[in-house]
Amino acid sequence: MLDVVCMGTECEPAIRIAQLCVCVFLSVLFLQSGIDKVRHWKDELGWITDHFSKTAFNAVVPQLLGVITLFELSAGVLTGAGAAMLLATGDKDIALLGVTVSAISLIQLFLGQRIAKDYPGAAVLVPYFIVTIAGLLLLAMN
Questions:
Q1: Residue-wise pLDDT tens for the chain (142 aa)?
Q2: Is residue 36 a contact partner of residue 85, using CB atoms and an 8 Å limit?
Q3: Measured between alpha carbons, how far is residue 139 from residues 7, 43, 54 in Å?
Q4: Of the candidates 16, 10, 18, which has an alpha carbon nearest to the alpha carbon of residue 90?
C-alpha cells in the first residue's frame, strides 16, 4: 500500500529517516532509564518494592528490577547500534532486534504497572509502545 501512495522509491529516504528517528528515540529512552536504574539502584529498588508490596511480585522485586534493567540497557544499546548500522551500511538487522527488545521491555513494564494497579502509570507507556510498533513496521519496509 505504501508503494502506491509513495509512487515507488520516492519515499525510501523518508522511511530511512523515520527508521533512524525511532531507533535514536528508543535508544535515548532506554539508555537513560536503564542507566538511571543502575546509578540509583537503592532508590529504584525502594520505590519498586513499595509499588509491588501488595502483589504476587512482592517476593521477587529485586530480581525483576534486574531483569527489566538488563532489558532496558539491551534495548538502548541495540537500537543505538542499529541506528549506526542503518547509517553506515543500511543493514536493519540490529535495529530490528533492538526495537523488538524495546517492545518486550515495554510489555514487561506495562504488565508490572497493570498488576500493581497503577493504571495511570500503565497508560503513560502506551505512546512509547505505539512508537515502537511503528518502528517495527517501518523496519519491515523496503
A1: 344 455 556 678 899 999 999 999 999 999 999 999 999 999 999 999 998 998 988 899 999 999 999 999 999 999 999 999 999 999 999 999 999 999 999 999 999 999 999 999 999 999 999 999 999 999 998 6
A2: no
A3: 19, 36, 40
A4: 16
String of DSSP letters for the chain: -HHHHHTGGGGHHHHHHHHHHHHHHHHHHHHHHHHHHHHTHHHHHHHHHHHTTTSTTGGGHHHHHHHHHHHHHHHHHHHHHHHHHHHHT---HHHHHHHHHHHHHHHHHHHHHHHTT-HHHHHHHHHHHHHHHHHHHHHH--
The per-residue pLDDT for 95 is 98
First to last CA, the chain: 12
Question: Which residue type sits at 3?
Answer: D
